[in-house]
Amino acid sequence: MARLAGVSRATVSYVLNNTSAVRISEPTRRRVHEAAKELGYVPHAAARSLRAGHSRLVLMPAPSFPAGPLYSRFLGDLQLALGRLDYTVVQHGSIGLHGDEAARAWAELRPVAVLVSGSGLGPKGVTVLKRSGARAVVSLGPDSVEGAHALLMDYEAVGHSAGRHLYDRGRRRIGVVVPQECGLESFSAPRLEGVRRALHGTDATLTELPLAYTEESAARLAARWRDLGLDAVFAYNDEYAMLLMRALADEGVRVPADTAVIGADDLMLGRLLRPRLSTVHIELPSGRDLAELVDRAVRDPGTAPETHKVLGATVVHRESS
Amino acid sequence: MARLAGVSRATVSYVLNNTSAVRISEPTRRRVHEAAKELGYVPHAAARSLRAGHSRLVLMPAPSFPAGPLYSRFLGDLQLALGRLDYTVVQHGSIGLHGDEAARAWAELRPVAVLVSGSGLGPKGVTVLKRSGARAVVSLGPDSVEGAHALLMDYEAVGHSAGRHLYDRGRRRIGVVVPQECGLESFSAPRLEGVRRALHGTDATLTELPLAYTEESAARLAARWRDLGLDAVFAYNDEYAMLLMRALADEGVRVPADTAVIGADDLMLGRLLRPRLSTVHIELPSGRDLAELVDRAVRDPGTAPETHKVLGATVVHRESS
């Protein structure tokens, strides 16, 4: 490669390792890079990070599949924004691994930053990651973790808005759908708690409604709807709301006359339904803002962990409530 | 660590590096691993792969977000199955990178296997990956790539089934929705081609219908529906079908009396619609089968590239067609 570029071997090494201690002119750098490309040279990220002591690798959680289109899009935007800041973004599923055990698996890759979502990482896991060279650990979810930056996603606010809205519409016997699918507890428990908080000290009652995302489960729930005596339901999100509304229609339950329904996520789906579905619009942080927070934390790993509340919840009132 | 485990430093090194040249008893191994755990030792995947000459790292494409729930679930299952075979699975977005340029970025991570989907990887990219130590490159998509194993996803079959079904139902003026969203061409072009093939040599006509996934775009298309004079439409997938059916209903176009509609993907959504949506059920390969193919290819990198057709398409006839 040195021969092709017409420079010394040492120069090739300096250029390819991006050594800043040695000054090399721009045209020489370009010649070396062109020769490298022509020869099909690929730097070894692992070797490079061993030399540099840290990598540009950011681990972020892979979208867990029941999480819905809104959250998946947010993770997609974040990945794009980190890529633009020249990080190598890699998504790491935590399949079969939990909490601190997952942290050890991630630490093996020696990432410079790790984003974790909602899943039981403890202070010990954060320590393992930091000791392995992670300059920033950022938790995304309803809880903060000691030693990590936290972007608190306040899903209680979603439930609170929905519960408040139904109460304000004059409803007093309020059901809350609790999905039975694995991996949704960290989203659904705080939503339920938010409704509870909104109704606390009022004359309204709250009924938990376990529901799997199947037509059979929805039909069973709808079949005992009149016995439940509910006049409103917060259906967890728009997809569960659509499933439940269809089952209620099949049972002759009128929406909103007999039962008001509100979902969450503000999917296009809800606008296409008749009656049009009321929903809680959720504002997630922009991928760019979050990428910049990660970048700041990487540049200045000494700063104390920051906590930001990052979730906005606004009711969009349509026809179903 | 040697002190804690009560063994020599060399033994610790042999155990943690999993050296097979030296025989070490199981109890000793266990003592070393326990000491390592207690001290919070995390092996460096990069260093380990430098020593071993290859890694257990498998790169697979991150689900690109417009790809829909079916394909996302398939990628999720695959990730799970590879994890069970003890690979470290990492999803790599190809954001901002295409084809051989993406291959160079992936090669830097020195994966033992790379799965790529649809997006313009050429024989040169395959060579770069192999020269960097990838023992298996597997393409997932409508086309095969020289030098790589291919799992051919024959999306033409989806369009062919839909076109054939509409023709068999007596329809002759058939529209095909072509989504305007980026990243869907590699799915939509073959579907269109499949319909074309199904209608070839018949008395039926085919009309391409560009459609963005917005209510406005659907309303514009529905407004000129009667001028188009179509008696059937293959709506690309169930989500576009729902969007279009709503817009057609608002224009007073009756489904299926005036226009038959068929989607694809067999989402639950379609069963919830009224009329119930006809659809093409798509059978993707099981994550486990695909993981085993990857594992075989890694163990025996010398085998000639295999090509498997892996996509089944079956019409599910409901009320809309």
From TrEMBL, chains A, B:
HTH lacI-type domain segment(s): 1-52
Keywords from the UniProt entry: DNA-binding, Transcription, Transcription regulation
InterPro entries xrefs: HTH_LacI, LacI/GalR-like_sensor, Lambda_DNA-bd_dom_sf, Peripla_BP_I
PROSITE patterns recorded: HTH_LACI_2
Molecular function GO labels: DNA-binding transcription factor activity; transcription cis-regulatory region binding
Record flagged with keyword Lyase: no
UniProt keyword Ion transport, yes or no: no
Pfam families, sorted: LacI, Peripla_BP_3
SMART domains linked: HTH_LACI
Protein name: LacI family transcriptional regulator
